[in-house]
Design a protein that fits this description.
mainly alpha; Four Helix Bundle (Hemerythrin (Met), subunit A); 4 helices; transmembrane helix
Length: 131
């Protein structure tokens, strides 16, 4: 199912959405091209959280992309798996929003939903190979 490949592409885009907030904040405080990482302490708290959301998105993407590729390669044909891939994307979008807005409980819930989503893809891939 091509939806798994499309979800990987969408997940790549989601990695960079929080970085737009970081870019905005960097522009406001005066971007220093000679030391961009040194600017972190000068950023407002929301932009620092956006940086962390951006970094965490890379970590989550690695696991999700492996799960989605497994589902694609093993030809998982399950509505639940498709919903899991979509749920991951929605959860990661909201994860970044809640991280930037500093709402830890909802951020953690979105992290859990994202984790359950790729666990579901792994599960269905293993079931597909086993049958």
């Amino acid at each position: 199912m091509a939806i798994f490949l499309y979800s990987i592409v969408a997940a790549v885009v989601l990695i960079y959405l929080p970085f737009l907030v970081v870019g905005y904040a960097r522009a406001r405080v005066g971007y220093d091209t000679s030391a961009p990482r040194a600017m972190f302490d000068k950023l407002p708290p929301y932009a620092q959280r956006a940086t962390w959301a951006h970094q965490n998105s890379f970590e989550g993407f690695m696991i999700f992309s492996a799960a989605a590729l497994m589902a694609y390669v093993t030809k998982v044909n399950s509505t639940i798996a498709v919903y899991a891939a979509i749920a991951y994307l929605v959860a990661r979008l909201l994860y970044s929003v809640f991280y930037i807005l500093n709402i830890p409980l909802l951020r953690s819930l979105m992290f859990a939903i994202g984790s359950l989503s790729y666990a579901t893809l792994f599960y269905f891939s293993i079931i597909q190979v086993s049958s």
